[in-house]
Design goal:
- The protein is mainly β.
- It has a domain at 6-56.
- It is built from no helices and 5 strands.
- The strands form 2 sheets. Strands 1-2-5 form a 3-stranded antiparallel β-sheet, with no helix packed on it. The chain has a two-stranded antiparallel sheet with strand order 3-4.
- 5% of the residues are buried.
Length: 81
Amino acid sequence: MYRSNQRDLTYKFGEYGPGYLARGPRIDVGVIVCDPGEMHYLVNRGDAVWRAVFVRAPHDPADTIQVAWLPGQPRPPAGDP
């Protein structure tokens, strides 16, 4: 068993982005904390902070999507449907 605590997470972009509870060798498990108006592939359109837990399998360090966006900037246009 592997134990981790959200308080000990290091977020990918410092103050935002995914915080990994476990990375590899088979899966990644993490938490995303999203303030109102922020975007992490999903957009928090509400008034409260929300947290999402994610599981990504198989573990692949190259499996990432870079979005040219920073908190406080307008949301970029959505991709093709």
